[in-house]
Amino acid sequence: MSDAPSGGQMLWKLVGEDRVLHLRHHASEPWRYYEEFPEYVLPDPKEFSKGLATFLALLKKNWITVKS
Fold it and tell me: How many structural domains comprise the chain?
């Protein structure tokens, strides 16, 4: 996670019945499933949304959340 640049964007998208984290580095890029960035992925606690641990870590890196 220390390799994560600051200032990216995060979005929670509904995938099936779950909300799943999606990321992009710049607004001009398409949204990508967070697991497509294995260098950022952190394990999630059981029963939590997919990507929650990664989301919290990226918030500390000044990533912003975009409303869907």
Answer: 1
